[in-house]
């Protein structure tokens, strides 16, 4: 698969929607993930990421302007033991709760489908990172309608064992702007992952469309120790 420049990918798409990146840093020492959200409406843009005990949560930047919390207020990132879950919706909680009951990532997601936001039927994108005993692997998933047909759900899971240093994968909800919004197509895109967390976060944030970007989360986890270092960038203040 061709390796893409993630910054170029973002610059060339004014509305990728929400996106998940997972991979391994160039020095091989860190498991890396990034998650961003964008918005076109006042309600969607009125959000910030805030830290929680086991990850992050979206909250209204200005509670007085929140008109509909449905689909926009959720926990994008949660940690369950040696697993880090990253998603674009409340399926984070589904994965957390069912994996805690010994179900798999895929089994957990079989209980869910795309978002109920006709006519877009926004895909649910999810990722899971396993880090332990000096090992790291990850998987990514997308649940989507079949070419916009709400009567047909398509489920795809992509697994990456022994990830190569310096590379990762990027999946997002939309191919671009439109009415309705066109769902992501194909498998996650192969990209490069640098060593520097702050530089990576800055590069991603600067590449996202200025009008539509809302929040970004980047986390580097030391594969040997499990120690995590995170960075949050919010366009709007709480």
Structure write-up:
With 238 residues, the chain is mainly beta. Helices cover 15% and strands 41% of the residues. It has helices spanning 6-11, 42-45, 91-99, 105-109, 197-207; strands at 19-24, 30-38, 47-52, 55-60, 77-80, 83-87, 124-132, 135-146, 149-161, 167-172, 189-192, 213-222, 228-234. The strands form 2 sheets. It has a 7-stranded antiparallel β-sheet.
- Order of strands in the sheet with most strands: 3-4-5-6-7-8-9
Report Rg.
17 Å
CATH hierarchy: architecture: 4-Layer Sandwich
CATH homologous superfamily assignment: Inosine monophosphate cyclohydrolase-like
Shape annotation = globular
- Distance N terminus to C terminus? 41 Å
Taking the sheet with the most strands, its summary is:
7 strands, antiparallel
Q: pLDDT average, as an integer?
A: 97
CATH topology: Glutamine Phosphoribosylpyrophosphate, subunit 1, domain 1
CATH class: Alpha Beta
Order of helices and strands: HEEHEEEEHHEEEEEHEE
Strand content: 35-45%
What's the helix count? 5
Layout of helices and strands, plus pairs?
Elements: H1 6-11, E1 19-24, E2 30-38, H2 42-45, E3 47-52, E4 55-60, E5 77-80, E6 83-87, H3 91-99, H4 105-109, E7 124-132, E8 135-146, E9 149-161, E10 167-172, E11 189-192, H5 197-207, E12 213-222, E13 228-234
Antiparallel strand pairs: 1-2, 1-10, 2-12, 3-4, 4-5, 5-6, 6-7, 7-8, 8-9, 10-11, 12-13
């Amino acid at each position: 698969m061709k390796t893409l420049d993630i910054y170029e990918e973002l610059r060339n798409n004014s509305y990728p929607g929400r996106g998940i990146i997972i991979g391994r840093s160039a020095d091989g020492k860190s498991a890396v993930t990034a998650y961003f959200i964008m918005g076109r409406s006042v309600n969607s843009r009125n959000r910030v990421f805030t830290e929680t005990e086991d990850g992050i949560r979206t909250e209204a930047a200005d509670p007085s302007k929140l008109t509909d919390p449905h689909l926009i207020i959720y926990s994008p990132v949660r940690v369950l033991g040696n697993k880090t879950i990253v998603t674009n919706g409340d399926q984070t909680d589904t994965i957390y709760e069912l994996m805690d009951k010994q179900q798999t990532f895929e089994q957990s997601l079989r209980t869910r489908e795309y978002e109920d936001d006709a006519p877009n039927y926004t895909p649910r994108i999810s990722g899971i990172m396993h880090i332990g005993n000096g090992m790291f692997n990850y998987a990514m998933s997308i649940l989507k309608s079949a070419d916009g047909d709400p009567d047909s759900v398509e489920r795809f899971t992509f697994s990456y064992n022994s990830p190569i240093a310096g590379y990762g994968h990027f999946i997002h909800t939309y191919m671009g702007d439109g009415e309705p919004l066109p769902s992501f197509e194909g498998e996650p895109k192969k990209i490069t992952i640098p060593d520097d967390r702050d530089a990576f976060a800055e590069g991603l944030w600067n590449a996202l469309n200025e009008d539509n970007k809302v929040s970004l989360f980047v986390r580097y986890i030391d594969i040997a120790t499990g120690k995590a270092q995170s960075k949050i960038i919010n366009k709007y203040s709480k």
